[in-house]
Design brief:
Radius of gyration: 32 Å
Strand order of the largest sheet: 2-1-3-4-5-6-7-8-9-10-11-12-13-14-15-16
Number of helices: 9
Distance between the termini: 90 Å
Structural class: alpha+beta
Strand content: 25-35%
């Protein structure tokens, strides 16, 4: 039965096909199709810093409990800690750290005066030459004259005695001349006069293999040490890259990022309306400090939004200082009580200033939610003191109005993050 049905289906299908092919359709006029026009795409513009902050501030607060948020925050921060821990094995970092140790042990003066220099000075000079080789026996540097290069030859590790690392640098002078403090001769200060570089670069090699490169550029229009634009980049062959850049204008901008194998570990994007040149002339003029805002991003997710009124904060600090008088009568029977009250008012004033003028919010980019505001409270120091002392403590303030002290909220593993990051940057004393 099934076979018959299948046979009928085949016959009917063939009949239908033959009938449709026998039908003749009227002849149609050829149709000329208009060419399809692609829609014009407007170029995608990057959001300004203010627009990025405005978009993040509009996000709702997370519905997660503080305990659940803690788990997510710790996981992200500890992932970053794992990446930073890898810097322990960085040969480039070890070499730069050892160079700093040797320069502390026996300083050199690349300015031909009496100034003891650090590693960062190598990138901040131009028109200075010489080859400095570490003499491990004498524990000193041997200088060889050169008219083409500035070079340091030294052991790559603290445990080594053989000179297998070379840091060489060169720079192009700008027209900006500044004084660099060089010491005191008993009657007056001695200063070196140098021209700041408009560009400089340095290369670190270990065992004849490049381990790191450093580049720096700057543009000046004013005659002080503050560049209108600058850029700095450090690349380690171990995978780390540290970049900074800035531009001085009516709206100053500054960016920095630390990455590992192109993955963001921490980045900063800061803007301010401070009048830099005016502050260099007189940093006590609070009206020139303006306002600042910024984003601090941890890994690929968590962001701290900062909105700071620098001018108002400075004015409030000055007003607080004028309003308080530190007790000086040590023989007074109420001296310790008076000092305790003074200490309390100083810290409470600083905390009130922070909460008023510095708005900080922790945001989760992945979830599209705000996690908590960052606020401060005054707490008393522990200890058996005759007078009481106080300090400011950072708290996370959640949407349900509950608060958690940041040092308690995060685990010990998270607290180590700041130390690890500081250790990484400290290696370059920069």
């Amino acid at each position: 039965m099934i076979k018959k049905l299948l046979l009928c289906a085949v016959v009917l299908s063939q009949f239908a096909i033959s009938c449709s092919s026998d039908e003749t359709e009227p002849e149609k006029e050829p149709v000329t199709e208009e060419p399809t026009k692609e829609p014009v795409k407007e170029p995608v513009k990057d959001l300004t810093l203010a627009e990025q902050i405005a978009a993040l501030v509009k996000q709702p607060y997370s519905a997660l409990t503080p305990a659940d948020q803690k788990v997510k925050l710790e996981a992200e921060a500890n992932e970053m800690l794992v990446q930073l821990d890898k810097s322990k094995s960085s040969s480039a970092i070890a070499a730069v750290e050892n160079l700093n140790i040797l320069l502390d042990l026996k300083g050199v003066d690349i300015f031909n005066g009496k100034n003891d220099n650090k590693v960062e000075d190598v990138l901040n000079i131009s028109g200075v030459y010489g080859v400095y080789t570490w003499n491990n026996t004498a524990k000193s540097w041997t200088k060889t004259e050169s008219t083409t290069e500035l070079k340091f030859v030294f052991p790559a590790k603290k445990s080594q005695t053989a000179n297998n690392a070379v840091l060489s640098a060169k720079g192009v002078s700008s027209t900006v001349k500044v004084e660099l403090y060089d010491g005191y001769n008993g009657t007056k200060e001695i200063n070196d006069n140098i021209f700041l570089p408009s560009s400089s670069d340095a290369t670190l090699t270990i065992d004849n293999v490049q381990a790191a490169s450093f580049t720096q550029t700057a543009k000046y229009s004013s005659k002080n040490q503050s560049p209108d634009e600058f850029a700095y980049k450090m690349i380690l062959n171990d995978g780390y890259t540290w970049e900074m850049s800035g531009k001085k204008a009516a709206e100053n901008t500054s960016k920095a990022a630390l990455t590992y194998n192109t993955k963001n570990l921490i980045s900063f994007n800061i803007g301010s309306s401070a009048s830099i040149d005016a502050l260099i002339d007189n940093d006590a003029l609070v009206q020139y400090r303006g306002k600042a805002n910024g984003l601090i991003q941890l890994m690929d997710n968590f962001v701290i939004i900062a909105d700071v009124d620098l001018a108002a904060a400075a004015a409030d600090d000055a007003a607080l200082e004028k309003s308080l008088v530190r007790p000086t009568n040590y023989n007074s029977p109420t001296y310790n009580t008076d000092l305790s009250n003074y200490n309390l008012k100083v810290t409470e004033g600083a905390v009130a200033n922070f909460n008023k003028n510095m708005k900080l919010i922790l945001v989760s980019k992945k979830d599209g939610t705000k996690i908590a505001d960052i606020v401060q409270h005054t707490e008393k120091e522990e200890g058996d003191y005759e007078a009481k002392y106080y300090y400011a403590v950072n708290y996370l303030k959640f949407s349900d109005k509950t608060e958690a002290e940041m040092g308690v909220y995060f685990s010990k593993g998270f607290e180590k993050f700041e130390t690890k990051f500081e250790d990484f940057i400290k290696a370059f004393n920069k």
